[in-house]
Every structure is written in structure tokens, then in C-alpha cells.
Design goal:
about 0% strand; 14 helices; 2 domains; single chain
Length: about 300
């Protein structure tokens, strides 16, 4: 058991070393809020966000270890190539990791079972650095699926985990309203402006800008939307939960799925409530993002 938890995914996680930086930026943002008389933070909401983040740390002790050894098994037994530690390997890994994140993130919005886990990150009605810590307690149990092809093509699991950590650290800084548009960088990189769109509830903004670090994937695959300065994002989810309980935040959509499954008569409809996009219904007008956007 000791060997299970004694691995680089746990012991050398860069996000652990970034925690003081996260705390410092949250304090800085609160200070700016006070100086400028803004309304960026709510104590109960931020406390819930931080609690969710701490929960992910605890869950990750088990899930990261299990995923590390699964990836190591694939790497040692099934890899096509051996990609050594070199500058070009890191450049390549940067792109394939970000590509994998894009599809994990996009599918987490389009498959309701995955959305039930991911929605936890979207359920705050605020946008600030503490919201970046509002991580899903469910995602660690399926997110790894989208990265399993990386050890097979030759990336060592240690390098994969490090790149995932760097991506997560970068994404922390996208959760703020204090940074405006960043000019030419907006064409290539995910920015606070792009990520504000992602967290917005207006119909035109739904399921847009799934980027991790590079916004190019959204531009290529048709999920990009510019932030409209005349239509400021309104944050949260289409039906806000009005609760600061971490247990409610973590479970509310799973309960909603179960309720819908029980009221459907046909097995096919029951399965659709699990695997179709959020908003699909068998006995009324669908409220999926694509349908709502088609009516605009």
C-alpha cells in the first residue's frame, strides 16, 4: 500500500507548490475588491469553492496514484515509441495534452453524466480566483480516459502529469474579472475574457470556449465565442442551486439525472437522460444549448 501512494504523481505535483501563489492572488484580488468597492467575492461562496478544492486534493491522493500506475502499465507494455526528455518532446506534449483537455472539457459539457460532475465548477454565480479552486469531485474518476492515448504513443506518465499540472496552474489565472482583453494574445491563448464567456449563462455563450491553454482548438472546431463588452457575462448555471453546501454542489445534478431516469418509461429514454446533452427531455421542448442557440 505504501508503494501505491509513493509515486511522482503525488510526491512531485507542481500544483502543490503553486498553492501559496493561489492564496496570494486571492488575497490580492480581495484587496483590490475593497479598494475599488467591487463585488467580486461572497464569503460563503468562496468558502464552498475552497472546500471543493480541498476535497479534490484528498480524492486525488487515490485517483492520481491509480491513474499513474495505469498509465505506467500502458507505457511499459504498449507504447509505440519512446519519447525521451527533450525540448521538442515537451513542445509536442504541450499540444497533445491541451488537445486532450479540450475534448475532455467539451464532452463534459455534452454528455449529461459527465456534466453532472463538471457542473460543480460552474455553479458559482461569481467569477474570481477562488472559483478556480471549485474543482469537481467526480471528474478525477473519468477525466483520465481522454489522456490514456498519451502513454501509448510514448509519453512517460511523469511528463504527462507534470504537463497537466502546468495546464491547471495556467487555468487558475483565467478566473477573474479584473483582466480585460489582451489584444493579439486572444487569437492564440485562452484568456480571462475567453473564460468569462465559458462561465456565462446567456444562451449565445453556452458551451463555448472549452480551451485549457490554447484557444485555437475552439476556433478550429467551432466552439469559440468572443466576449461581448455590451453583454457582460452572467455567471452560474441555467438553474442555479442556491446552496453553499459542498455535498449539494457535488451531487445535485446526479440527483436530477436519477429523477429524470425514473420518470422515463422507455429504456432508450432512460439512457438518453444519462448520455444525451444536458437539457434533453423526452416529453417536452428540449433545452439543450444547441437547440436554444438555434432559436436565437
Amino acid at each position: 500500500m505504501k508503494d501505491f501512494f509513493d509515486n511522482p504523481a503525488i510526491n512531485d505535483d507542481p500544483t502543490v507548490f503553486a498553492i501559496p501563489v493561489f492564496v496570494a492572488f486571492i488575497i490580492l484580488e480581495v484587496f483590490i475588491q475593497i479598494r475599488r468597492n467591487l463585488k467580486l467575492y461572497e464569503f460563503k461562496d468562496s468558502a464552498a469553492c475552497i472546500t471543493m478544492g480541498l476535497g479534490v486534493v484528498v480524492i486525488g491522493v487515490v485517483t492520481k496514484s491509480a491513474i499513474y500506475f495505469l498509465m505506467l502499465f500502458l507505457y511499459e507494455n504498449f507504447r509505440f515509441f519512446t519519447l525521451e526528455n527533450s525540448w521538442w518532446m515537451w513542445v509536442l506534449l504541450f499540444f497533445v495534452d491541451d488537445f486532450s483537455f479540450y475534448w475532455h472539457h467539451r464532452i463534459s459539457h455534452s454528455v449529461r453524466l459527465f456534466w453532472a460532475a463538471h457542473v460543480q465548477h460552474h455553479s458559482s454565480v461569481n467569477m474570481n480566483f477562488s472559483v478556480a479552486l471549485r474543482q469537481s469531485w467526480g471528474e478525477p474518476f473519468y477525466r483520465f480516459i481522454f489522456y490514456l492515448w498519451l502513454p501509448i504513443i510514448g509519453f512517460h506518465p511523469v511528463f504527462i502529469f507534470m504537463m497537466q499540472a502546468f495546464s491547471l496552474i495556467y487555468q487558475f489565472f483565467q478566473h477573474t474579472e479584473l483582466v480585460g482583453k489582451l489584444g493579439l494574445l486572444e487569437w492564440i491563448f485562452n484568456t480571462p475574457s475567453h473564460h468569462r464567456v465559458h462561465h456565462a449563462t446567456q444562451v449565445k455563450y453556452l458551451d463555448k470556449n472549452h480551451a485549457g491553454i490554447l484557444i485555437i482548438w475552439d476556433r478550429i472546431f467551432g466552439t469559440f465565442h468572443e466576449e461581448d463588452l455590451n453583454d457582460k457575462p452572467v455567471y452560474g448555471i441555467t438553474s442555479n442551486i442556491d446552496s453553499y453546501s459542498p455535498l449539494v454542489i457535488a451531487s445535485h445534478e446526479f440527483k436530477a439525472i436519477w429523477k429524470d431516469v425514473k420518470r422515463a418509461d422507455k429504456l432508450s429514454d432512460k439512457l438518453k437522460y444519462i448520455f444525451m446533452p444536458p437539457g434533453w427531455t423526452h416529453d417536452g421542448e428540449n433545452q439543450t444549448s444547441k437547440y436554444l442557440q438555434s432559436k436565437l
